[in-house]
């Protein structure tokens, strides 16, 4: 007696019944989800492009140098009018030299300790020599960009930029000693508008 032949086994697999573990792992990986979200929100690219870098401009100290020169002249005139002796002149010259050393020290401290970086996504302000402070403000959080100048700064094209934002740690970022201050302020404002448009946000609604 012939035994019945068993039906052939199907070689087809149901993908939904036995998913690829590597595929499910990548879909559930937080880093992968973050990368996909960032790409979708930033037009398919998460790389930053540098737009501007700067530091404390020497022009911003011209007012201080000018003030120091006037103070030195006034001190010498007063000393002559008072008829100081040798000891008095020694003290006077020592005070003048100390004032110039403090002014020069302040200038070099600003030059070496203050750095600015603007990319198409954020503004970074670094300050300090031994103790470094780094303030980062996302352009998407920037609400307003203004600048201020004194009479001498206006003549030289330098000034201080004030960045107001919704950032909790740095709601107001002050950037002193900016050369070509108007151009830089416009650049920051244009960059924040471009970033907001790329995120699909209406500027006036924020």
Distance between the termini: 86 Å
Cα shape: elongated
CATH class: Mainly Beta
Based on the structure, what is the oligomeric state of the protein chains?
A: single chain
CATH architecture title: Roll
Q: How many domains in all?
A: 1
Task: Note the main sheet.
Answer: 4 strands, antiparallel
Low-confidence runs of at least 5 consecutive residues: 15-27, 202-206
- Relative helix content: 40-55%
InterPro entries: YdbS-like_PH
Region (Disordered): 1-48
Pfam family, one: bPH_2
Keywords: Membrane, Transmembrane, Transmembrane helix
Explain what the structure shows:
With 206 residues, this protein is α+β, with helices and mostly antiparallel strands. It has helices spanning 21-28, 30-41, 62-82, 86-113, 151-156, 181-198, and strands spanning 50-55, 115-119, 122-127, 133-138, 142-148, 158-165, 172-179. The radius of gyration is 31 Å and the shape is elongated. It has 6 helices and 7 strands; from the N terminus they run ααβααββββαββα. It has one domain: PH-domain like (Roll), CATH 2.30.29.30. The protein starts with 20 loop residues before the first helix and ends in an 8-residue tail after the last helix. Helices cover 45% and strands 22% of the residues. Strand 3 and strand 4 form a beta hairpin. The strands form 2 sheets. It has a 4-stranded antiparallel beta sheet with strand order 1-2-3-4. A 3-stranded antiparallel beta sheet has the order 5-6-7. Mean pLDDT is 80; it is low at 15-27 and 202-206. The longest helix is centred in the middle third of the chain and has 28 residues, at 86-113. Helix 3 runs antiparallel to helix 4 (86-113).
């Amino acid at each position: 007696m012939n035994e019945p032949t068993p039906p052939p086994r199907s070689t087809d697999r149901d993908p939904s019944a036995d998913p690829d573990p590597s595929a499910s792992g990548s879909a559930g990986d937080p880093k992968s989800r973050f990368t996909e979200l960032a790409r979708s929100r930033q037009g398919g690219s998460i790389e930053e492009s540098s737009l501007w870098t700067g530091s404390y401009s020497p022009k911003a100290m011209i007012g201080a140098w000018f003030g120091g020169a006037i103070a030195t002249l006034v001190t010498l005139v007063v000393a002559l009018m008072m008829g100081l002796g040798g000891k008095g002149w020694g003290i006077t010259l020592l005070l003048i030299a100390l004032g110039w050393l403090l002014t020069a020290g302040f200038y070099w401290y600003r030059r070496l300790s203050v750095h600015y970086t603007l990319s198409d996504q954020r503004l970074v302000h670094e300050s300090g020599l031994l103790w470094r402070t780094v303030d980062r403000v996302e352009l998407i959080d920037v609400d307003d960009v203004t600048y201020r100048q004194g009479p001498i700064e206006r003549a030289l094209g330098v000034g201080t930029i004030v960045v107001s934002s919704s950032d909790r740690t740095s709601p107001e970022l002050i950037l002193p000693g900016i050369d070509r201050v108007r151009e830089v302020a416009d650049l920051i404002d244009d960059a924040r508008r471009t970033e907001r448009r790329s995120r699909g946000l209406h500027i006036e609604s924020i």
